């Protein structure tokens, strides 16, 4: 069902790799709500994933950008400004990757070059997106920016390894930029901390299925789906949440407030 929540709004969606991606669902829902979109993903994802199919489905331009590269981000905003004829009203950061996790390096024995890569791709890319967007006057007054996190930023999930540190940094960047962009332009910056979700990034974590099942049993509402996450994010992009900023908002079926679930005790 569409409520026209994003009618007349323009936004950039990063990270839609395939039909399972959280960003894919956000793009589809934002389009249904009347938004005009520009999609972006890493050049390798354009070759191996399905972003082109989504861009065709939504009639949206697709701009390749490695979000660790300042020049790629600058080009992304130039394309967006040209395409929309002005600044964007919303932005989704939906990007994460840890080469340490991919190579099975335990947290106690990280490869430090790879650790830097994890932080760059998964957190500092958000700083770069906001900083360059601000410099280029590509972020509209009163806009809304959302990035995705996981509760391992606050609590220990051993196999999440250095992604936990990346998410803690990402959440801090959201608070800091939330202050500056709020003061200057009335822009909101929030984090959505999502349940385990079966995507390429999610299932790359060792023991994903066990973590998924555990969280599902622990959460009174069960795990939140990617579709439900997209609904929530669309509301955050809309004018209905115009006083919410600098928050980590848990979209997790209640998991973050639980101590113990009777079902798991048995
Ligand atoms: N899946 C989960 O369980 C879960 C839970 C909480 C939060 N998240 C977060 O949600 C976000 C989206 O992940 P997802 O689960 O939809 O997985 P996904 O694999 O579908 O999306 C990750 C995206 O990051 C992109 N990416 C990686 N490196 C990049 C780079 N250098 N430049 C540009 N893009 C790059 C990939 O191409 C991909 O599209 C991530 O931040 C992830 O950490 C996921």
Task: Describe this entry's structure for a reader.
The protein is of the alpha/beta class and 266 residues long. The chain has one domain (10-265): NAD(P)-binding Rossmann-like Domain (Rossmann fold). 46% of the residues lie in helices and 16% in strands. It contains eleven helices and seven strands. Helix 7 (162-185) links the parallel strand 5 (139-149) and strand 6. Helix 1 crosses helix 10 (226-237), helix 4 (70-84) runs parallel beside helix 6 and helix 6 packs parallel to helix 7. The longest helix has 24 residues, at 112-135. The chain is globular, with a radius of gyration of 18 Å. Residues 15, 17, 21-23, 41-42, 45, 66-68, 94-97, 121, 148-150, 194, 196-197, 199-202 line the site of nicotinamide-adenine-dinucleotide (NAD).
Short synopsis of the structure:
By secondary structure, the chain is an alpha/beta fold. It has helices at 22-32, 43-48, 51-58, 70-84, 99-102, 112-135, 162-185, 200-203, 208-218, 226-237, 262-265, and strands at 10-14, 36-41, 62-64, 88-93, 139-149, 188-194, 248-251.
CATH architecture: 3-Layer(aba) Sandwich
Order of helices and strands: EHEHHEHEHHEHEHHHEH
Helix content: 40-55%
Runs with pLDDT <50, length 5+? none
Strand order of the largest sheet: 3-2-1-4-5-6-7
- Name of the CATH superfamily: NAD(P)-binding Rossmann-like Domain
Strand content is 15-25%
Based on secondary structure, the structural category is alpha/beta
Please give the structural blueprint.
Blueprint: E1 10-14, H1 22-32, E2 36-41, H2 43-48, H3 51-58, E3 62-64, H4 70-84, E4 88-93, H5 99-102, H6 112-135, E5 139-149, H7 162-185, E6 188-194, H8 200-203, H9 208-218, H10 226-237, E7 248-251, H11 262-265
Parallel strand pairs: 1-2, 1-4, 2-3, 4-5, 5-6, 6-7
Helix pairs in contact: 1-10, 4-6, 6-7
The structure holds nicotinamide-adenine-dinucleotide.
């Amino acid at each position: 069902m569409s409520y026209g929540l994003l009618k007349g709004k323009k936004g950039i969606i990063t990270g839609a790799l395939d039909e399972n991606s959280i960003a894919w669902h956000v793009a589809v829902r934002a389009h249904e709500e009347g938004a005009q979109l520009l999609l972006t993903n890493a050049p390798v994802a354009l070759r191996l994933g399905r972003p082109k199919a989504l861009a065709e489905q939504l009639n949206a331009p697709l701009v390749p950008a490695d979000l660790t590269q300042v020049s790629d981000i600058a080009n992304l905003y130039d394309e967006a400004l040209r395409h929309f004829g002005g600044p964007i009203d919303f932005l989704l950061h939906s990007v994460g990757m840890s080469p340490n996790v991919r190579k099975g390096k335990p947290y106690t024995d990280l490869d430090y070059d790879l650790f830097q890569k994890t932080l760059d791709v998964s957190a500092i890319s958000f700083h770069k997106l906001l900083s360059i967007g601000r410099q280029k006057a590509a972020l509209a007054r009163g806009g809304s920016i959302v990035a995705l996190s996981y509760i391992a930023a606050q609590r220990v999930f051993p196999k999440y390894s250095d992604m936990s540190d990346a998410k803690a940094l990402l959440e801090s960047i959201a608070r800091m930029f939330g202050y500056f962009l709020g003061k200057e332009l009335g822009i909101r910056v929030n984090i959505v901390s999502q349940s385990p979700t079966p995507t390429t990034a999610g299932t790359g974590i060792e023991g994903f299925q066990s973590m998924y099942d555990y969280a599902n049993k622990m959460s009174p509402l069960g795990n939140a789906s990617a579709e439900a996450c997209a609904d929530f994010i669309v509301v955050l992009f809309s004018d209905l949440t115009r006083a919410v900023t600098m928050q980590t908002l848990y979209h997790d079926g209640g998991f973050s407030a639980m101590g113990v679930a009777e079902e798991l005790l048995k």
